[in-house]
Give the backbone structure.
Amino acid sequence: MNPAPPTGLAETSVDRISRRQVDKFEERRSQLATAAIQTLSELGYARTSLREIAHNSDFSHGVLHYYFTDKVDLITYCVKQYKAACVTRYDQIVAVSRTAPELLTGFARGLAQTAREDASMHRLWYDLRNQSLFESSYRHDVAEIDGSLRNMIWRIVSRYAELDGREPNVTPTQAYAVFDGLFQHALWQVLAGNQAAVGVLEDSVIVLLPRLLIEFD
Amino acid sequence: MNPAPPTGLAETSVDRISRRQVDKFEERRSQLATAAIQTLSELGYARTSLREIAHNSDFSHGVLHYYFTDKVDLITYCVKQYKAACVTRYDQIVAVSRTAPELLTGFARGLAQTAREDASMHRLWYDLRNQSLFESSYRHDVAEIDGSLRNMIWRIVSRYAELDGREPNVTPTQAYAVFDGLFQHALWQVLAGNQAAVGVLEDSVIVLLPRLLIEFD
DNA sequence: ACCAATACTGGACAGTCGTCAAGTAAATCT
DNA sequence: AGATTTACTTGACGACTGTCCAGTATTGGT
């Protein structure tokens, strides 16, 4: 029923057509996934239904089974799409920072801004990560995103160490766990109404990141 | 319909009777909550139904509305009951440790053991904490438990500092966020099948706790 | 203009959900 | 022992769920 993906290497006219179809197909999938992500971030996994997702899109509920085989397929697709939008966020801070303090404050401010402005999006991430503890269907993709986030944090930590002329004294996993913990708690506070928590988060990052490097002798 | 709680100060015979009834009432509530917690820790919030909870108890599904007004009431009760069993866990380690290294290894080992043996229980905690980001009904009780856990961590950190003759250099919130982050990531690994993660957790705690104190000059 | 393939709608399905109430069993009191 | 309250069961209710499908609108090739 669904259009087949492009098959051969030589691009015949048939292939060109089917590729255009596949592009449109992918485009709509992405569009529906966006509506799904919005719904999920508002209601949470437990209370999100396919009908509600469709209601937040321009289409009826039946279309979801035209573009996705089932609910797991849809949400898996959402998780992957979320990743693409999220992971590269801090690489620019790494790129532009010329000194260690500059990178430090930039990173801290970036995390704080994310907690302030993208709170719903990130509670969705934590919700889905938690779902993967119960439904193994999501585990693989969640692990992939988690790894990407860990790498992102590590790029920051190791670049910070480099700019400061020192060496990291923790593993990537440890660094990620620390900042993830800080961010998560700030997020909880923010969503509970405590806007001041983003300032606390910012300060915490500034205090703790330097301590993840080896001490001066 | 439900027996009233004890009313007055002077304990008449009527009061004694009603208190006995209240005790039995509370006992059964606790019993049902235990079945609910077991179910929740196995299936997660999103897939736990009242019928499944009743199925994991000795009673039929109708009884749940005899002892709880609705689902929120039941789960709120579960959250509170969970707290009582969980929070005091590490205080004994603080009490018996005579030296800083002893407390350090005891704490690290305790966390690792918890991640190994009570994994399902704790993924339930994270699941419910996450639910509270979407359903404000649970927010108050979750915040209370979170505060208790933070205090528990802080007792360990401050006692560790005391035994080591130094001072903590982080806030209670920061310390809690760090160890919560480490624990959560280890828990994810364990539930994904990577048993080695508990060793990593143990090492991480031993590496990081000392760095939460002010450095020697 | 016609036709076939694609895109989408909207209703129906079987199942499950939380909730409730009528009815039975058990315990308690007089 | 009989009467009354408490404890619990069972079946039902309407609402909602994911899934599927027959049918309609839309598109694009010829």
User: Anything to note?
Assistant: Chain A touches chain B through 42 residues (CB under 8 Å).
